[in-house]
Structures are given as C-alpha cells and as structure tokens.
Amino acid sequence: MERGRARRPSYRRQVSVSRRAAVSGPAAVALAALVRWTNLVALAGVVGGLVAELLLLPRDGNGLAAVQQRLRRLTFASLTLLVVASGADLIERARTMAEGGIGAAVAALPLVLGRTHFGVMWRLRASTIAIVALLCWTRARSAGLVALATMLAAVFTLAASGHAADWGDATATTIVDWVHASAAFAWGGGLGALWWCVFRAPPSLSSAALVTITRRFSRLALACAAAIVLSGSFNAYVEVAELPALWSSAYGRVLALKVVLVLGALALGAMNRYRLLPALSESAERVIDERPPDRAPARLLMSRYIAGEVILVVVVFGCTALLGQLPPPRRGDAFHDASHTHVE
Fold it and tell me: Do the domain assignments include residue 342?
C-alpha cells in the first residue's frame, strides 16, 4: 500500500514495507534519484520540443525549416531517452520492491505492473508515450497539438504517483502538482529547445524570426514562472510542516537548494526579457535598416544567458528527483511512503 491510500490490497502494503527497507541506503536512494532525474529531463525535452514547434515558431521566415528539423530531432531523441528511462524506472522499482537483484526484479514485474498503483500509472504513461511517438511521425499541426495534450496526460501520471497523490489521484494536491510539473517542463524544456534549436541554428535564420520566437517564449516563460511559483508555494506549504524543517530535515535542505536554483534561473530569465530582448530587437532593426551591427551582439549574450538557465534547470530537475525519494516533514504526517516520485 502507498501511504494515504486506505483501501489498498494487502500486497501493496507489503510492497510499501519492502520499499522503505530498500531505499534506506544512500546508494539505493541515489540510484532511484538518478533514474528519476533522467525521466524528468527526457519529459522536459519532449514537452519543450513540442511547445517550441507548435507555439513559438512563426508561420514563415528564412531558416525556419532548419529550426523545425532540429526541433523534431530533439523531440525524437527525448522520446527515445524517455522510453529507456521509463524501462529503467520500472526495473529499479521492481528490484526495490522485490528486495533482490535483476532476476528478482524481472520475476516481480507482473505483480508490480498489475497489482500496484505505481504499475497502473506506469502502464498509462507508457501508453501515452507510444501515442505521442506515433503522432510525432506526422507533420500535421493538429497531430502535434494532440501529441502535446497526450504528453501532458503523461505528466499527470507522474504527479499521480508522487507525494501529492498520498491524498488520492483526483485531489487538489495532485492537480496542483500536475500544473506545477507541466509548467516546469514547458519552461525548462522550452529553454533547452530555444537554446539548442534556435540560438544554435544555422545563420540562415532571419533576425526578425529570431526576435519573434524569443518574444513568444518570453511570454510563455512568464506564464510558466507564475504557475511554478504559485503551485510550488502550495506544495511547500503542504509538504513542509514549519520553517525550521527547511534546515532540520534532508527534504527541507534539498527543497531550499532547489528554490535558490529556481530563483537564479528566474533572475537570468528576467535579464533576458527586460534587457537583452529589447537589445535583440534593436539589433534586428539595424540589420533591416542596413546599419552597422552592435559590437557585442545581443544574440550572443542571450545565448549564453539561456545556456546558464538550462544548466540551472537541469540541476533543479535533479533536486526534484531526489525530493521524490525523501520523506517530507509534513504536518502530523505519520504515514509517508518514500517510494513516491514527486515533481515538487
């Protein structure tokens, strides 16, 4: 049984006990966090690639075909990584529940997939990944929109198997966590797509198209940042009993580090939005008017700032993966199961 779920079959209760015993060692926690970290990065890559292609690219402009091709390669590479990471997640979870090696994990797979809440969520997530992979083969915009919606459903299965789901799958805590995760993947994955597929695209991409894409992402990032801050504050209130727990518990210390990293990424984003984006627009106008370009191109500076944001976000995902393996110091919580995987 996973804690907070009062009507679980007895097998789930036994699985929960095994899980707690197995994850007590630092090596087991690190391995589980590493597997989950890979899953989070891959999910962000898929969501970010789809968001960039569907919401950021203008209808026409020089160099857009090359950018779109790079985005599609990023999406497929992320999907491939997600398939591998999801399989590793299943094996790792089965190994832990079976308290054995790979052989014991393989033998436990039918029980894990068929008789645990994690197994149900994993099967749903695997189905959505398969659907997205099929939809991404087409070039129709409508198929891309369906793929993005399906991918967000996959994100919900992540929230529904995390700490927030201790109160149930369709509860306010789970829904808020889903919003938090979706916004984080759209922002973080979009940043990666923007840097790798746009700012590192061939020089054929026109300055006007670059400015349009960057402005659109800036608006998207602002909305995502608001959602992340609001939902993250709610999650912290639910999971952390009191302020001293931020430094007196392992969960609190990792959460505090994550908050600092997020604030750093938001600071870089603010610099891009309010200082470099206007300079990038002015630089594009110089090209159009055939005036001499700036000595320190805003494009180069923005590319470096975005790269810094991407690095911070990847580390944030690592903190999130670790938080999913640590018991949160909740108010009156006497039943938490550290087997959950949570997107803080």
Answer: no
Residue 330 lies in a domain: no
**CA-to-CA distance for 188 and 309, rounded, in angstroms?**
8
* Residue 310 is assigned to a structural domain of this protein: yes
Rounded to an integer, what distance in angstroms lies between the CA atom of residue 14 and that of residue 35?
Answer: 23
Phi first, then psi, for residue 61 (nearest 5°) are: 150, 150
Residue 1 counted as domain residue: no
Q: What is the DSSP string of 95-123?
A: HHHHTS-HHHHHHHHHHHHHHSHHHHHHH
Count of structural domains within the chain:
1
- Work out the widest C-alpha separation in the chain, in whole angstroms: 74
Structural domain containing residue 210: 10-323
pTM as predicted: 0.84
pLDDT tens string, the chain, 344 residues long: the values are: 333 333 333 333 334 433 443 445 788 888 889 999 999 999 999 999 999 999 999 877 667 888 999 999 999 999 999 999 999 999 988 888 887 788 888 888 999 898 888 899 999 999 999 999 999 888 788 999 999 999 999 999 988 887 765 666 667 888 999 999 999 999 999 999 999 998 887 667 888 888 899 999 999 999 999 999 999 999 888 888 788 888 888 999 999 999 999 999 999 999 999 998 998 887 665 544 444 444 347 788 899 999 999 999 999 999 999 998 888 887 554 334 433 433 44
